[in-house]
Amino acid sequence: MMRFFRLYKTFVVQQLKQLMEYRVDFLTGATSFLVGQITNIVFISIIFSQIPHLQGFDYYEIIFIYGFSLVPKGIDHLFTDNLWKVAWFIVRKGNFDKYLTRPINPLLHVIMETLQFDALGELLTGIVLMIIASIKLGINYRFGNVALMLLAFAFGTVIYAAIKIAGAALALWIKSSGSILQVFYMSSDFAKYPVTIYNSAVRNIITYIVPFAFTAYYPASYILRGNDPWFCFGVGTAIAAVLLTLAILLWNRGLRAYESAGS
Amino acid sequence: MKWIGHVKRVYGGFTRAGAQGAMAYKFNFLGFFVGESLYCFVMYFIWKAVFEASGESIFMGFTITDMTLYVFLANIVGFLTNTDSTQMLAEEIREGNIIMRMIKPVNVDMSLLATEIGDKVVMSAFIFLPVMIGVEIYRYFALGYVAFNILMFLGFVVSVILSYILAFYLNLIFGYLAFWLMNIWGFSILKGSIIKFFSGSLIPLAFFPDIVGKIFEQLPFASMVYTPVMIYMGKLQGMDLLLAFGKQIIWIIVFIAIAKLIWRWAEKRLAVQGG
Amino acid sequence: MSNMIQVKNVSKEFKKVIKEPGLKGSVKSLFHKKTEIVKAVDNISFEVEEGEVLGFIGPNGAGKSTAIKMLTGILTPTSGEIIINGQVPYKNRKKYVKEIGVVFGQRTQLWWDLPLSETFTVLKEIYQIEDKAFKQRMDFLNQVLDLEPFVTSPVRTLSLGQRMRADIAASMIHNPKVLFLDEPTIGLDVVVKDNIRKAIAEINKNEKTTIILTTHDLSDIELLCKRIVMIDKGKKVYDGDLDHMKEKYGKMREIHITLKSDNDINKLSFAEKFGLTGDDIDIALDGKKAVVKFNSSKAQVSELLSYILSTITVKDIAVGEADIEEIIRRLYKGNENDETAHGNAAAVEA
């Protein structure tokens, strides 16, 4: 474990050096994600200029849910971005072999190798939106709900990471799985709005199959409305744990398939 | 007309390679399709909730049927006109393979375009047609009559092709940024957001405050998505239609000129610095 | 002497998708895939002693890289057994790879956007090398591979030769017992190639590192390896001394002639004059350029030259040695025609 942290520290230091060298790129990256979120906020604002509330949620409540969704997404984006590269081209171009000739777990190696600072754009937008909405809505933060919120950020991040691990694992069979991963990843768009606007099929899918609803709406609805915390956090934690286990199993199977087929 | 045969011979190979490439990555192919559809459904549900919340059948000049049509068409047009040329070019520039295009007796932009067109033809057959049929079936059941208009459709096709060329050159210009920037990925995201916003993919331009919407309509982005979709929906007729085509063509010319200028500069730079 | 590497009856099969050519084929394969089993490596056995440098050669697509990937633990064999350094590569890989180094000449394991020194810093942590050992190691590698001039430059700015030196250093940083070099001189110019070869030889001499080297360049083999294993179409076709192979199969010489008139070539009769028939001679004509390949153990180059020059008028004439691909091609052709040739080749080892 100590070794792991030492190694990770080394990687982080490398990444920071790289960041210093490519400041302009970092700024464009972070700005890009920031602008992407801002356009969505404009979208929400235009809609709310015409209607008072959406499915019983008013403007700032929607903003709160939206901001909430960006936090786990941003944390995951910061730490596990290299999985995208595995899905898109590391395997396809034959560069995955490198990880198999190193004496550390290939999955950890892949993940540790990159810190994607672009994610700070998303993360900051999310936090700022949550703060603004919290003030406007007069949300009362106590130790209890803050702790639960942090828990939700943690399992939300795990849900994102698990889906990315599973998506990247597919590349070990089919060489390039970027767009499949993108499909699953994009379905996180559903999570940015109250799940009550969807029909039951969509709702069930994003609750139990690609459980992005737990990365924002359910925990946020507890903070806003006091919805059942056992469901919002208990089931959320359980689902995230199951999903991560499945993803790692899939990754390991992928490694075995890769060992027998190569690229 | 001899030049057509020549162009066909020179670039036909690139086109076929692109089409075959698209086929080879069929998982990716389907992946994008499903991904875009999901996004459409998110938008559809949001608009449905918005219409319910407003309590009226017409929201800012659009019925719910119009809105559904708009969401799906805007995304399919966005999908068809979205090109990989930025990534392709940026990767080649970063890895220094761009010189491989320079030593071939072809235009860089034309060879990229040819590679992509193969891809797009396949996509149109496999993705656009099913979506369009789906949209028309939906419209038939929603309205109770066939609203499909062949003239509007032809106008739409022409407009989409113009959109594609426009988008291609815009992407090419973004791709050239790799001569200066490493993080083209981040820039692509930025470009994507900007296009989605200003082209009307996210929100119909008509929904913006009057003056803002008018300004957005003049920008090249509107020509990329909003124009073809509005033509399909029959919301642009007569003079407006011709004017829309005119705008598309003008922007294409402007973008080609910019792309050529940058390329000429890059060629010089590559010749001096050797990549 | 102990055997560092033992490879016993190793095979590797792949499922290969048969794709019909053209766009139509692509469309078809979208719905229906035909597959066939391809034997990339077919029942190969060999052993390598500690400290030996083995040349592992064969034409493109012979199964070299599949074999190397099995030896490095990246691929699992379909059947057979590999024991390297007392371990099975594809089992307990993490432990195994601590003691091997791998260079894939066509790829890099260096961190592209960072200064070279940073790659070593990261590798130090990955392989858990003590500070003192690391410093000594860097000094040694620096001296052998001359990294000093570019160790602070970002990897992407390195020349191909510098990058290769750095990649070899990166694969040596943890003092591996076995080093796999897959095409370490590919794409390099003669001077740089020479430097790399010297460095490899020095590493082998100083550290007794067992090295497996694949290459297309016969000079790499000649300068570094006493022994070679050659494979073609997945099968081992030769295992033994390099000199012996050259003597046996590499006696082919080439005479390149630029003719004055196309028909002149027909005036030459090597069969009649020198008794060169069948596999001992091969004449290829491309316009006015002719290449005469012949077995130099059956006839002297000088005799042939004077015969050609006295019989016909030539614009230009040059003599060359057959390259490795040619030797392999001939060797394999021999095997197909005559099964005993295979027996001979295999017997060399014994």
What keywords describe this structure?
heterotrimer, B: 275 residues, mainly alpha, C: 350 residues, alpha/beta, Rossmann fold, Alpha-Beta Plaits, 2 domains, disordered C terminus
Gist of the model:
By secondary structure, chain A is mostly helical. Chain A has helices spanning 2-21, 23-48, 59-80, 82-90, 97-100, 106-113, 119-137, 143-174, 178-186, 200-209, 217-225, 229-261; strands spanning 53-54, 57-58. Chain A has a two-stranded antiparallel ribbon.
* Poorly predicted sequence stretches spanning 5 or more consecutive residues of chain A: none
Q: What structural category characterises the helix and strand content of chain A?
A: mainly alpha
Number of DSSP helices of chain B? 12
How many discrete domains of chain B? 1
Largest interface: A-B, 43 and 40 residues
Question: Which series of helices and strands of chain A comes N to C?
Answer: HHEEHHHHHHHHHH
**Percent range for β-strand residues of chain B:** under 5%
Which structural class fits the helix and strand makeup of chain B?
Answer: mainly alpha
List the total number of helices of chain A: 12
Proportion of residues in extended strands of chain A: under 5%
Rounded Rg of chain A: 19 Å
Sheet with the most strands of chain A? 2 strands, antiparallel
Physical arrangement of strands within the biggest beta sheet of chain B: 1-2
Number of domains of chain A: 1
Give, in spatial order, the strands making up the sheet with the most strands of chain A. 1-2
For the secondary structure, the number of strands of chain A is 2
- The mean pLDDT of chain A is 91
Task: Characterize the structure shown.
The complex is a heterotrimer of chains A (263), B (275) and C (350). Chain A is mostly helical and 263 residues long. Chain A has one domain (2-261). In chain A, 76% of the residues lie in helices and 2% in strands. Chain A has a two-stranded antiparallel sheet with strand order 1-2. Chain B has one domain (2-273). The longest helix of chain B has 36 residues, at 108-143. Chain C is built from 13 helices and 13 strands. In chain C, the strands form 3 sheets. Chain C has a 6-stranded mixed sheet with strand order 5-6-7-3-8-9, sandwiched between helices. In chain C, strands 11-12-10-13 form a 4-stranded antiparallel sheet, covered by helices on one side. A 3-stranded antiparallel sheet of chain C has the order 2-1-4. In chain C, helix 5 (131-145) runs antiparallel to helix 6 (160-172) and helix 12 packs across helix 13. Mean pLDDT of chain C is 83; it is low at 337-350. Chains in contact: A-B, A-C, B-C. The A-B interface holds A 22, 24-26, 28-33, 35-36, 39-40, 42-43, 46-47, 50-55, 118, 174, 176-183, 186-187, 189-190, 193, 197-199, 202 and B 25, 27-32, 34-35, 38-39, 41-42, 45-46, 48-50, 53-54, 59-60, 181-183, 185-190, 192-194, 196-197, 202-203, 207-208.
